Amino acid sequence: MSPPSAIRFVHALLVGRRINVRPLLQTPVLSGAPLTVEVSGGGIAVLFRFGVVVFIDVAPIEQAGFVARLRDLITEPVEHGEFETLEFVVAPGSSEVFRDGVLQLDADDLASLQVVADALAKSVLLDHHEQLIAASFDRVEPLAEQLSSGRHRVRQLQGLIGHIGEVLRVQHRTVGRAEIGEKPDLLWDHPDRERLFHRLEQEFELRDRRSALDRKLQLISNTAETLLDLVQAQRTLRVEWYIVILIVIEIGLTLYEMFVH
């Protein structure tokens, strides 16, 4: 096995909710799936529609300039999004494992770098949604406690539809756009890179984190739906009481008119 090369860096950055990559496909690219372009000053950038840009061998100042030029293509841009950095070396003949936190790559061909970028991008997106769901838990938990103690108030439950919407939004991004838990499409053309993908998937615990996120999403959704059902039941009961009161008033008025006349 040849000695490893110098340590190199991969930096994944969440820049927004979505990146419109279509205009960039009209410019010179290294690959279209995933979209990979050269960066002025050296290195490459891999762009993912779910809002993550992965830089490989790109200096920090060039990264900032590249993201600034993307601003018009980013939906709901974020100034300080989640990020993650991975160190790797090229060691021909290696078994593509992690040693002391550094990935040993057998080769630095474009397909291998794209596989690394895909795994790191999904890890960053999971980081973002794990934080969102943790915050959502903090907001829903007091409502669940009030429900169990019978101290709930309808006015305190007005944000429940927002919680359900947030759950659906997270599911749409992780399952629909990012396809976390599934193999990237480029492996169909490069099946020899599948072992590398599975090693990265295990290292970043993508499947386990996706499963844990799904369970939390389901719990939040069930809690919010239960509380919404309670709100609806309370409102229905209130309407029924209004109807009963109106009927009683109508009967009273009718009896009054009968006795008067």
Describe the structure concisely.
This protein is of the alpha+beta class. The protein contains six helices and ten strands.
Describe the 3D structure.
The chain has 261 residues and is an alpha+beta fold. The chain folds into 2 domains: 8-113, TATA-Binding Protein (2-Layer Sandwich), CATH 3.30.310; 119-235. The protein has helices spanning 60-69, 110-149, 160-177, 186-189, 194-203, 206-260; strands spanning 8-14, 18-19, 31-32, 35-38, 44-48, 52-56, 74-75, 83-90, 98-99, 102-105. The strands form 2 sheets. The chain has an 8-stranded mixed sheet, covered by helices on one side. A two-stranded antiparallel sheet has the order 2-7. Strand 9 (98-99) and strand 10 form a beta hairpin. The longest helix is centred in the C-terminal third of the chain and has 55 residues, at 206-260. 26% of the residues are buried. The mean pLDDT is 80.
